[in-house]
Write a structure and sequence with these properties.
The structure holds 2 protein chains of 2 kinds. Helix content of chain A is about 35%, strand content about 30%. Chain A is built from 11 helices and 13 strands. Chain A folds into 2 domains: about 240 residues, Rossmann fold, CATH 3.40.50.300; about 60 residues, Alpha-Beta Plaits (2-Layer Sandwich). The relative contact order of chain B is 0.12. Chain B is mainly α. Chain B has one domain. A two-stranded antiparallel sheet of chain B has the order 1-2. Helices cover about 70% and strands about 0% of the residues of chain B. Chain B contains 11 helices and 2 strands. Chain B is globular and about 65 Å long. In chain B, strand 1 and strand 2 form a beta hairpin. Classes of the chains: A alpha/beta, B mainly alpha. Chains A and B meet through helix 3, strand 5, helix 4, helix 5 and helix 7 of A and helix 1, helix 5 and helix 11 of B.
């Protein structure tokens, strides 16, 4: 499956949106002179994804992630730029292209709510022209992997959010797409369900060498599945590289966790070493500037009865937050 | 975790006539499964549908009786026959309306359908064909009850009875394509209730839905000849009433086929523009 690559060159999507001030006067004025403004939802992003890669596509709400996924899946026509997905131009929406992709949107359902998922799967079989034997084998395996055996026989409206999402995932992959666009596939799910969906995506990716572009606000999804991340903000690309590099580049601080032996009731002034995150009698969590970390660590070891000390990067959520706060520079 | 099944096949799958027929059959089966789940709701819907023709029936039967037994060539018993057949025709020509389209766009269903490698119209067609099966089952007791209550008079001969299912299906196709066409307006704007009302008012007047066309003024009958509506209500009803002779029947069938072809062509043309617009502005 060498064709499952994604190429994006200088992709842009600009919407014209009506602009009107508040009040009756502005409302009357807008009848004769309607003002619009251009909103650049996606503003010149470029990247390349190789077949079989799982890439995290990150950004705050309104960053342009979903718009990009919609353009990649042929649901939106780009304002400018070049796109190639699995060897096709998405906006042409050719049958062969549509057979090779899937777009799962965590907040949108594709299954018919009033009938059991297993009956909806039948329609997918007919629409994608999947041979009956292959369909049954794949469907049953996926149902087994997702532990949906009895659930697919219930009307979809009777399923919980997590159960429905699992059923949606099976439906979205029955035609064995080579390129998966997953927009918040674990949104609103509990930890167990999130883990199961992640495992399923991983299994599918490994089995079929499928290319996956995944957006998620849950960093656990990204950490578990994606070696590489692409970060966009205000439609512009902020970062494209390894997750570890992202942490390295955008994390300006280190977290020091100290465990100390009994200090006979004395409480040392920890603020002199850095920002105190938490302080208990024998355990302190400090935040220090990355550049100061070696020096502060040496001082702590010299000044205090330290029995254990760890130096960590801050949680990935904080790193991502700092990326969004960083000045906008493309790379 | 157990392994998934067969490896991915890189070659594209062909979608031939057989696939298409399978898709219609599966979509129809889905509609049957879906509708059979809600017998109470469907019976209520049936009652709702019956209110309209029963009002017409009572009014026009009374008018016919007061006018000396007939109006526009219809006796009270023939009016009863007309409106009872009306209820069956109405079941058959039901199709997705503009509200359905609006819901589809709003809920993101249309986006999901656009990701599939078939035109959304095709599964729709299968679905609405299947829809007729449970609706006919739900209609039967109501139809029998109306028959017993109003004692209609209908006089079809054998060929008219045999032709009725054919013209009934053709009526469905005519209405299906024109309702789809109307639904496509939602791609441009959601606030076109006035346009929909205008369309349904025209349908009410010129289809024979409100009253048989013979009862309408001549100008209205002339206007109706240039519109698709009469082929979706009036024509199939008249066939089963036994009021359409062979010389009128074949031109009627040809008119139905012409409107189907016209509706289908318009849907195809406007669909391209609609998708272009949808992919330009998003859902």
């Amino acid at each position: 499956m060498s064709t499952n690559s994604i190429t994006v060159k200088d992709l842009r999507k600009t919407y014209k949106v009506p602009e009107r001030e508040a009040g009756l006067k502005a409302a009357i004025k807008s009848l004769v002179a309607r003002k619009t403004k251009d909103v650049h939802a996606v503003d010149g992003i470029s990247f390349q994804i190789e077949p079989g890669e799982i890439v995290g596509f990150l950004g705050p709400n309104g960053a342009g992630k979903t718009t990009t996924l919609k353009m990649l899946s042929g649901l939106l026509y780009p304002t400018s730029g070049e796109l190639s997905v699995a060897g096709h131009v998405p906006q042409k929406r050719e049958r062969e292209f549509l057979q090779q992709i899937t777009l799962v949107m965590g907040q949108r359902s594709q299954l018919n709510w009033d009938i059991p998922a297993i009956d909806s799967y039948d329609l997918y079989r007919a629409i994608y022209g999947i041979p009956q034997e292959q369909f049954i084998a794949d469907r049953d395996k996926m149902i087994e992997v997702m532990q949906l055996k009895d659930l697919v026989k219930k009307p979809v409206r009777n399923l919980s959010l997590g159960e429905r999402m699992k059923a949606e995932m099976v439906g979205a992959l029955l035609h064995q797409p080579g390129v998966l666009f997953l927009d918040e596939p674990t949104i609103g799910l509990d930890v167990t369900m999130q883990r199961r969906i992640r495992a399923f995506i991983q299994e599918y990716n490994q089995r079929y060498n499928a290319t996956v572009l995944l957006t998620s606000h849950y960093m656990a999804d990204v950490q578990a599945l994606c070696k590489r991340v692409i970060v966009i903000h205000h439609g512009k690309l902020l970062f494209d590289g390894d997750l570890t590099q992202l942490v390295e580049r955008f994390s300006a601080q280190k977290t020091l966790v100290l465990t100390m032996s009994d200090m006979n009731g004395k409480t040392p002034d920890m603020a002199q070493y850095g920002t105190v995150v938490t302080q208990e009698p024998n355990r302190v969590v400090l935040r220090v500037a990355k550049s100061d970390a070696p020096q502060v660590t040496a001082r702590l070891l010299a000044d205090l009865p330290v029995t254990d000390l760890t130096v960590d990067d801050p949680p990935i959520e904080e790193v991502i937050e700092s990326v969004f706060d960083a000045p906008e520079t493309s790379e | 975790m157990s392994e998934l099944a067969t490896p991915i096949k890189p070659e594209p799958r062909r979608f031939g006539l057989r696939n298409m027929l399978t898709m219609y059959a599966v979509a129809a089966r889905q509609a049957i499964i879906e509708q059979l789940q809600y017998p109470a709701a469907n019976m209520m819907f049936m009652v709702h549908i019956l209110i309209e023709p029963v009002i017409y029936l009572v009014v026009w039967s009374s008018v016919a009786t007061s006018q000396g037994g007939a109006i526009g060539g219809y006796t009270a018993a023939e009016f009863a026959g007309y409106y009872i057949i009306w209820t069956l025709v109405r079941q058959f020509n039901l199709a997705i309306g503009p509200q359905g389209f609006h819901w589809r766009i709003k809920e993101g269903r249309l986006a999901a359908e656009l990701l599939r490698p078939v035109h959304p119209l095709l599964p729709d067609l299968g679905y609405y064909l299947g829809y007729k099966v449970p609706q006919t089952i739900y209609w039967l007791p109501m139809g029998i009850l109306l028959w017993l209550l109003f004692k209609p008079e209908i006089n079809p001969v054998a060929w008219q009875i045999a032709a009725f299912p054919v013209v009934l299906m053709l009526a469905f196709f005519v209405r299906f394509f024109f309702m789809w066409l109307l639904g496509l307006v939602c791609f441009w704007t959601e606030r076109v209730d006035a346009l929909f009302e205008l369309y349904f008012a025209a349908e009410l007047l010129f289809s024979g839905r409100l009253v048989p066309l013979e009862v309408m003024p001549t100008w209205a009958q002339n206007v109706a000849n240039f519109l698709p509506f009469q082929w979706t209500f009036y024509f199939p009803i008249e066939v089963l009433l036994g009021r359409v002779d062979l010389p009128e029947f074949w031109p009627g069938v040809l008119a139905q086929l012409a409107w189907i072809a016209g509706g289908y062509t318009l849907v195809r043309m406007i669909w391209k523009l609609a998708v272009k617009r949808f992919t330009a502005v998003g859902s």
